[in-house]
Every structure is written in structure tokens, then in C-alpha cells.
Write a structure and sequence with these properties.
mainly alpha; elongated
Length: about 210
Amino acid sequence: MLGKQIGYGTLIILGCLALAIFLTVNSVWLFDLNINPLKLAAATGRTASQMHHDYVRIIAYLQLPWIPSLKLDYFFSSAKGLQHFRDVKGLILFNNFVGLILVPTGAYLLHRLNKKSLTWLLMTPIKVVTTVSLVIIALMFVNFDQVFVAFHEVLFRNQDWIFDPNTDPVINMLPDTFFLECFLLFFVLFFGGLAVIYWLGRRSLKQH
């Protein structure tokens, strides 16, 4: 039973993770909402429509494997900057591939568990993951810059993620505050999925 609990919990939670990442990356609306509050037009010298245009091009490049290179219309990029976008694209496509497998698999397993009133098996794994996530969120609010640096050092083997505004001015429309909001949106989506599963688990306990 313990092995099934860990295995099912891992697959379903990883599916939620992949889906939350996918939805966060594609939340162009979050960028649009930040253009005026973060004064991005003043920071970049570009209009809101121009920034939206190039941001959509970035997301399309990251998400679509058949787009071989990133070409922005209103910002120039250095070789290091383009390499970083390539590195990010690799991670995004990997997440999408994992999501294509684990989201339907997790949904199927969840359906089976729910049908047998065994969804309660997922409650302990969800508590563990939620606790770890809350610790990360607390660290983000204490020192987001340090968490942001650590995040990049774990995911990337080079220093190409450190953008120079003089050679990669696109970074001026992607301030730290925006990335903080992206992290928070991810956790909202992730916790939302876990909350639904946890609720199903509590309901299944009452049926025993």
C-alpha cells in the first residue's frame, strides 16, 4: 500500500506540477497587466503593443519546437542572450513532453482512486509537497533575489542567464518583480490542483 501511495502520489503531483508550469509560461495576460504598473514603457522605450508583440514571439519560440530561432522585432539580442533562450526552450519543451504523459496518466489514476474511494492515499504526499512549497515561498519573500539566483544555478550550467541591458535590452521589460509574480502564479495554480485532490481525498475518507 505504501508503494502504491508513493507511486500514485508522485505521478499525479508531477502531472500537476507540469500543468502549472505550462499554464504559467503561457500566461501572456500577466505580462500585459504589468506593463503600466511596472512602467515598462519608460524602462524600455517601447510601446505596450510593441512589448506585447515581442513577448508573444518569445513565448511562441519557447513553446513551439518547429520555431528554430528567436527573432524579436523591437529588441536586439546578444549571442549569450539567445543561448539562454535556447536553454530555456529546452527545459520548457521537456516540461511539455512530461506533461503530455503525466497529465492524462495522473488524471486516469486519480479517476481510478476516486472511483474506489482511495483518493485519501494522496493526502500525505500532498501535505509533504505543500510543506516544502510553503518553505520555498517563505524564502522567496525573505530574499527573492537569492532564491532566483539559486533557481538559475540549479537549472543552468552557464552564466548566460545574467543579461546585460546594454547587449540584451529585452531584460528591461522582464524585471524581477514580474518573475516574482510568475512564481506566485505558478504556486497558486499548483496549490489549486493539489487542493482539489486533497478535497477528493477527504471526501473519500468519509465514504469508508
